[in-house]
């Protein structure tokens, strides 16, 4: 999952804090949710509470590692959690979650079949997960400086003409995945030689970038400080005025890149399993899901919801199928990636 930075973040957090603290009466059933930071509109949560006469206690995390560490340490007894595919796989294998009764989530019929094929990579029988959202990063260029004639490739990071005007995400799997795909390998490679080659390629790219950045690339691009940025289109375009949008071009590099898929799961020991199913079904009501996707500005995995969306997305489900490779659990091989990333970030 991307980190979704928006100007209303503070307002959202404040509102959700009010939801959690303000008394709705102990007689109301409570649903405990642990989701990514700024990943669901407040109005959707309010609508669910109103419709079912319940209270939603909504906590947020900003990385899969934070989610997993908290759950493994016994912190927070949640009903629904929303990990990405690689961590969903870990949680299934460690029996941290319980099966979903699909008969209680009839709106699953709206899920795009292309996305279901990705889902089956980590949950073959769709037994433990309900897809929440999917997307992928790419590259945005400022054609006022880069020009119109540029290769839609990760190799743009090797162009000395843009040295000091480019950024890459400060994200191990995203950057290493980009390098692996550039070399013709899988983003999930466990081959030490391939990972070493990818590390060396990123070190070449590093010579031309300003920094690895996961928070400020959108604002920096809008200000003209950066001409080429690696990241999520919505984080860039939300910062641009009308004139800026005219010279901004987002693309997925021709070699492909990593893709994420975030999933709703019910924890073992959940306090309100029935209500958890109602919430998952509610999320995938076409009109409700359209509100979520308009907020996130990412392609809708819910086919029926697309007719209700009012915002245009910067890429499509078809683009993800063409260019994306799902990030999967690397198991013990993640240590090899960690070592490579350490060398990249603080080494040469």
What can be said about this structure in brief?
It is built from 15 helices and twelve strands.
What would you note in describing this structure?
There is one protein chain. This protein has 348 residues and is of the alpha/beta class. The chain folds into 2 domains: 9-135 and 260-326, D-Maltodextrin-Binding Protein, domain 2; 138-251, 3-Layer(aba) Sandwich (D-Maltodextrin-Binding Protein, domain 2), CATH 3.40.190. Helices cover 40% and strands 17% of the residues. The chain contains 15 helices and 12 strands. The protein has helices at residues 9-21, 42-52, 64-72, 85-93, 113-119, 143-146, 172-182, 192-206, 217-223, 233-237, 242-246, 273-283, 286-296, 317-323, 334-346; strands at residues 30-36, 55-61, 80-81, 97-98, 130-135, 138-142, 166-168, 209-212, 228-231, 248-251, 257-267, 324-326. Strands 1, 2, 3, 4, 5, 11 and 12 form a 7-stranded mixed β-sheet that branches. A 5-stranded mixed β-sheet has the order 8-7-9-6-10. Helix 7 packs across helix 8 (192-206) and helix 8 packs parallel to helix 15. The longest helix is centred in the middle third of the chain and has 15 residues, at 192-206. It is globular and about 65 Å long. Residues 5-11 and 17-25 have low confidence and may be disordered.
């Amino acid at each position: 999952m991307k980190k979704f930075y928006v100007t209303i973040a503070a307002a959202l957090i404040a509102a959700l804090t009010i939801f959690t603290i303000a008394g709705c009466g102990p007689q109301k059933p409570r649903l405990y949710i642990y989701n990514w930071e700024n990943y669901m509109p407040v109005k959707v949560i309010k609508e669910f509470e109103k419709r079912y006469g319940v209270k939603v206690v909504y906590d947020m995390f900003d990385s899969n590692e934070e989610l997993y560490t908290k759950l493994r340490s016994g912190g927070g007894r949640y009903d629904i959690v929303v990990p990405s595919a690689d961590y969903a796989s870990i949680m299934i294998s460690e029996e941290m979650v319980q099966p979903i009764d699909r008969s209680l989530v009839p709106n699953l019929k709206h899920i795009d079949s292309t996305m279901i094929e990705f889902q089956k990579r980590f949950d073959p029988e769709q037994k433990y997960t309900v897809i929440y959202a999917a997307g992928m990063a790419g590259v945005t260029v400022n054609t006022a400086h880069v020009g119109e004639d540029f290769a839609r490739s990760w190799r743009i990071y090797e162009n000395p003409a843009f040295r000091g005007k480019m950024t890459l995400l400060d994200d191990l799997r995203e950057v290493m995945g980009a390098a692996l795909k550039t070399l013709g390998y899988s983003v999930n490679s466990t081959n030490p030689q391939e990972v070493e080659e990818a590390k060396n390629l990123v070190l070449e790219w590093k010579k031309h970038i300003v920094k690895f950045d996961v928070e400020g690339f959108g604002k920096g691009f809008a200000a003209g400080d950066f001409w080429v940025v690696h990241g999520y289109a919505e984080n860039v375009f939300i910062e641009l005025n009308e004139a800026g949008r005219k010279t901004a071009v987002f693309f997925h590099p021709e070699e492909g890149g990593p893709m994420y898929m975030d999933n709703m799961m019910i924890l073992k020991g959940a306090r309100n399993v029935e209500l958890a199913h109602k919430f998952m079904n509610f999320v995938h009501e076409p009109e409700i899901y359209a509100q979520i996707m308009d907020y996130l500005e990412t392609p809708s995995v819910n086919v029926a919801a697309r007719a209700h969306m009012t915002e245009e997305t910067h890429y499509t489900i078809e683009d993800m199928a063409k260019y994306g490779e799902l990030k999967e659990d690397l198991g013990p091989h993640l240590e090899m990636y960690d070592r490579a990333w350490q060398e990249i970030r603080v080494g040469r």
